[in-house]
Amino acid sequence: MEKQLKLMMAVPISTKSETKSQREIRLERLHRRRRRRMIISAVVMLAAVGGFLFFSTNSPEAIPSPELPKLADPGVLPPAPEGPMFFAGVDLVGAQSPTATLQPTESDPTKTLPSSSPEETNLEPDPVQAQPELQIVPTQAQMITYAEDAPILYYAQSGDSLGVLAVRFGVEVQDITSRDPLPSDGFIPEGRLLLIPNRLDETTSPLKLIPDSEVVNSPSSVGFDVAEFVQEAGGYLASYQESVYSFGFMNGADIIEKVAREFSIHPRLLLALLEYQSGWVYGAPQTNQQKTYPLGIHNQDGTGLYKQLEAAAGIIETGYYGWREGTMVVLEFPDESEVRLSAQLNCGTVGLMHFFSKQVNFPEWADALYGEKGFAWTYQNMFGDPWLRALEFEPLFTPDVLQPELQLPFSQGTTWAMTVGPHAAWGAADVRAALDFAPPAAETGCHTNWSWVTASGPGLVVRSGNGAVVVDMDGDGFEQTGWNIIYLHVATNQRVPVGTWVETGDHIGHPSCEGGVSTGTHLHIVRKYNGEWVPADGPLGFVMSGWRAKAGSAYLGGWLVRGDQVVKASIVGASSSHISLD
Hints:
Membrane-bound Lytic Murein Transglycosylase D, Chain A
């Protein structure tokens, strides 16, 4: 069963071209101009500081300053202060079985990144692009060894909780202290200073490479026009087409948007990875490998843009949510070497680290992340400084965030079975955010079932198709903001259309096998908040009609608990899994 459910993830090798393209030359020019500006600024600042120190130390009133203790670097950002029968189905959410057919069209290989000719040097710089770029050097890839017995000063990040922090730092929950009270359950306020014993030996650098809001499909993606950006870039992607299952031929921008929407991963991140790995956005692939495997993921079942993006999204989100849930603290490379992750990293950075660790070994991994022209350099040249945007949209979670009141997603008077406890939200994205329920049935497998799936809470239907219904609970029309409930495997027949406002208990549609690969008719339900899949068992636990989800240690196991009542997940619909709406 487990082999049926897990998607295969390759351990490929990067195939970058050694030939310096016109795109790279122009990127280098842009980089040199920015470096010159930064050097000039640095010289001016040093001169000013030197003058101040000279006059200060030669003044008779000068008094020696006490030496301040050195604190651990908090990262890139400065710290902030027995019944009916049930035949269950299990699914590979968002996975598709047919093989996609590629149909690339003509492209202009001369189109590259925006020109940086001498005639353009006097133009006004773009206000975002002109921000000082993140300075990353290869030495920052070196492992960090902490001084013995020196406690770590840690500033809480958005979404941090005590249990997960204890896992990351290798300590017990009671070992984490603060001058302010700490919540035993729920999120720790962002920026709160924590004192944590040093129990780690050697870890990666704590340098944060990308904010969370630029990795998940967060509010920062609202208004970003993928099609416009791709056409203006004018590279191979702008004229690319591919047959994607029942959707027919889709162009490159539409494929990017589809994966971003379904996996809830940021489109800017997908575009930057595509450019860094194969030059598709501003130029053209230089090798057959770059054309066939544009994200560098060498898998015979993963050729073409759509499957490559799906695989990449799954790898990134496995790292992202593994860090969020405390299930990932070590990276393993293709040569089976391992590194312990710095406990001070953020989810977005770990997602990026995990992506590259699945393709190349440590030296190449370090160059991709920390090299002078690594991924961060490409990202900033394409989209400007991501940390400046993050100031507007983060934190994605605050301690006062609560799940709205929700009820079980089926009608009163019917008994369903919880077939799977907390498990993957979508495809290969390993975040235990979803729950599966099967309706009463007289036959096994995929079949027509007329039981109703009902709305767990009120909201606006913003997506309805391919087996999925998305209800935006804040009603602003965007999946990227606030609370959203996703119902998957909803049959086409009588499915609620886009634009409908539903109240709690209103009909959504009928359970089915539509929308992915499933072994039987059922409903898959999952939550998102500000673009993040929300783990079903965590600080924001999945609660419906007073039943709280709990993850099990066994694969696909778990429970629903309400007081002294317990419902146990069963993929065969055992009586212990039966549940009904009061």
